[in-house]
Amino acid sequence: MTDDGGRLFREAWIAGVKKHFPGEPKPGYITPWEDTPEWERQSAAAVFGQVRDFVQVSAGTTAKLTREQKGRFVALCWIAQIHKHIPEPKSSYVADWAELPGWQQETDADIFERIEQSV
Fold it and tell me: Residue 50 contacts by C-beta under 8 Å, 6 or more apart in sequence?
């Protein structure tokens, strides 16, 4: 798995955080790819691949999904990666869609759309 997909995911995350986060985001939210922990890089690449594959097997019809549906897909894929890499994650790391702050929901939807555009 190349870094390109993971890097695109991370760049979309950072752009979304800068756009949607109220106030000053935590430094870890906007850490550049080069300084991102390895487990997070692997997770970003995996979720990029899942979204890319979903768009491809859907023959581009993902454009008909709502932003919420797109964001939910990213969030659910990310939760699976958290469980893969963190044995006992904090509940906020694996929160369901309805429990996520609005800025994170919007950022997840932005990520999906950025990946969708790249396919």
Answer: 73, 77
